[in-house]
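Worked example 4.2. Below are the chains of a multi-component assembly; read each line carefully before continuing.
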Amino acid sequence: MLSADDINAIWLTLKVASLATFILLLIGTPIAWWLVRSQFRGKSICNALVALPIVLPPSVLGFYLLILMGPSGLVGRLTTDLGLGVLPFTFAGLVVASVFYSLPFVVQPLQTAFTAIGDAPLEAAATLRANPLDTFFTVVIPLSRSGFLTASILGFTHTVGEFGVVLMVGGNIPERTRVVSVQIYNHVEAMEYSQAHGLAGILLVFSFLVLLLLYSTLKTNPVSPLK
Amino acid sequence: MTDSIIASFKLDYGAFSLDVDLRLPSLGITVLFGHSGSGKTTLLRCIAGLQHAPQGFLAINGKTWQDSEHNLFLPTHKRSLGYVFQEANLFAHLTVLGNLCYGLKRIKQNSNSENFKQIVELLGIEHLMQRLPEHLSGGERQRVAIARALVLNPDLLLMDEPLASLDSKRKQEILPFLMRLHTELKIPVFYVTHSQQEVAQLADYLVLLADGKVQAAGLLSETLSRLDLSQAQDREAASVWQVSIVEHETAYHLTCVAVGTDVAMQRLYLPAIDAPLDTTLRIQIYARDVSITLEVPKATSILNILPATITDLIDDSEGGQSIVRLQVGSQPLLARITRKSAQLLSLQTGMKVYVQIKSTSILN
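Applying the procedure described above to all two chains together yields the following structure tokens:
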């Protein structure tokens, strides 16, 4: 039922989503921690910036990323100077765009989890000779397990579901930027409804199962990214 | 001085300010006592470095932890202290053993030491080692928290109302452990509380705080009996004496204890106590349970009649009562009598009198 192109699209989607989630956890964790702990006055601005992709039409986000990463954009010139070429319409570009697109879905659950921990365990750790970095790894991270689970799953599934940003930044290049959502669009455009059904069904069942896993693991409601 | 603790802090939050300059003994239990908002917890947090007073000097037995004039502020994790919070504040993701070892690992020690075994035994938590904090009772959690601080063998143990979150039954479960700490470990303790009972039971040295300032600081018996402080005028005013058992009168169900040193020793009868001779006890005598006579009464049912000298005398703020400060041997004692009686007996400072003690309570 699935064509070779369909399989390729699924693989590509999984690769993009996994890599983006990994990068998001790496950069989202310090961002979330900083947003929770710092007393910085301009914090609201940073909070708004992080949340922007939730409300922005993906095409708008994609448009600006395209400009930024393009040959005359700031990032584009940097990557060219570094000998990496320009990012739009490449796999790397797709991953970078996904990171921006899914950032709030990783940062916000982490923020909620970090806020919930409060000062008490951090102070206890300090009185037990743990320096701040040590405390972060041995107290904060273990106590935020559910926050990290929620962040990973929401970041991953949200990246799997992106469409607008991919079209703007990645285009529709087989095996490089043609992810499942774009492939479904292609099938519908070509009136191949049964093919579209196959992929759409897989995406539907996959998303449902992942969320089911999340809700049943956490027992309580997972942290909402839009809280 | 290397065997004392110097703590001096100034901070101003507008609505609340702290301004203290203390020199405290680095031995025994120092209780920081005051009502809520008096600054006692803030002072403790400044000592721990959890709060950074912009102006401060803090030295523990010659080791400087803060000296704002020289821009020195040792972060909390570099201070050799133990801290017991009001809520046990255990790490929810670690077992009791994991909690106990958390600090030990960071000072490159493990749970195989004699010290560790002694503390675990002292606090009676051997059977809880593999449990998670959520499966402990409030009292057990607090005992683990105390053990977690103690196993580090810190230079100073700070306790912030460790019993406040517990009901009176759990309090009674923990107090004996705290009193044992006192006799069995050599770590100086700063203990914050607003409970007079805990002061009487635990304090060696007492610091009274009000509105962020030190009202008085001194040995417990001295400070409790100072008439210029509101403590002495309280209806619950009491004196605390350290006594030792000299004799058991089993026929009468009485125990005789000695007050003070050999030279000025006095004897006092208490209800029978099941403890060996020479055991040291702490007893509390409410000022309202002490009456004064000018001569030894010939016929009275009161057993405890001791010679005393009046050292101070004031009328209470409402005017109906007089508070008399006496010296019994080496120990100060408060008596609360009516102002009329004080006038009828023409009590004055320096007079030799007799005190009748109606009842005493044993604190440990």
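Take a moment to check your reading of the output against the notes. Chain A touches chain B through 18 residues (CB under 8 Å). Residues 221-227 of chain A have pLDDT under 50 and may be disordered.
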